[in-house]
Amino acid sequence: MSVIIVTAAYIAAQMLSDISSLKIITFLGFSMDAGTLIYPLTFTLRDLVHKTVGIKGARTVIVSAAVINLFMAFLFWIIARMPGDPAVGVQSEFAAVLSPVWRIVIASIIAEIVSELIDTEIYRLWVEKITMHYQWMRVLVSNSFSIPVDSLIFVWGAFGGVYSQPVIWSIFIANLILKGAVTLIGMPLIYLVKEQNH
């Protein structure tokens, strides 16, 4: 798996999760933003990026994904406000579905940057200070730190003051459960790419 594929998959997962986060769903009895169905993959994909291009490359990809997501939200916002072609008829669906909710966009991007940079630093410390072996463990350890941070920043930034505290904590718990499960399932992916010397 090349670095191009891993990087593209990381950015695509970030974008899809940001779009999906506009809807709150019920998952295993918990309230949850739908973006959590795909977002957990980004933590392991980020580890793959780190493994192939090093820490500087991983940081660049994290910031680039945030800029792309912000641009995407801004583009959707502009398009939602542009007049539709009268010959086509009323086109309210785009604005109803894709017009960004800025508190969700901003909370999501801040959570992504902070948590993914933490993930990057923990991953680096594991490799440099502990061992190059047990690659699955570096994924597990780095994700164990970054997932709770991401979930706390996102759910309170996006939904604090909008939904009741029980709903927000339900979203938080659902995030932890699903992100943790995806981490466990996705850990073997780290073996798909070769370690690069940096």
What's the architecture in CATH terms?
A: Orthogonal Bundle
How large, in whole angstroms, is the Cα Rg? 18 Å
User: What do we call the CATH topology?
Assistant: Arp2/3 complex 21 kDa subunit ARPC3
Low-confidence stretches: none
- The chain-level mean pLDDT equals 88
Q: Helicity, in percent?
A: over 70%
**Strand pairing plus helix content: what structural class?**
mainly alpha
| Euclidean distance between termini CA atoms | 18 Å
Q: Going across the biggest sheet, name each strand in turn.
A: 1-2
Characterize the largest beta sheet: strand count, sense, and whether it forms a barrel: 2 strands, antiparallel
Quaternary organization = single chain
How many structural domains in the coordinates? 1
Instruction: Tell me the strand percentage band.
Output: under 5%
Total helical segments: 6
What letter string, H or E per element, gives the SSE order? HEEHHHHH
Query: What is the β-strand count?
Result: 2
What does this structure look like?
The protein is mainly α and 198 residues long. The protein has one domain (3-192): Orthogonal Bundle (Arp2/3 complex 21 kDa subunit ARPC3), CATH 1.10.1760. 71% of the residues lie in helices and 4% in strands. Strands 1-2 form a two-stranded antiparallel ribbon. The longest helix has 41 residues, at 41-81. The radius of gyration is 18 Å and the shape is globular. The two termini are 18 Å apart.
Write the layout of secondary structure elements.
Elements: H1 3-20, E1 24-27, E2 30-33, H2 41-81, H3 93-98, H4 102-130, H5 135-159, H6 165-186
Helix pairs in contact: 1-2, 2-4, 4-5, 5-6
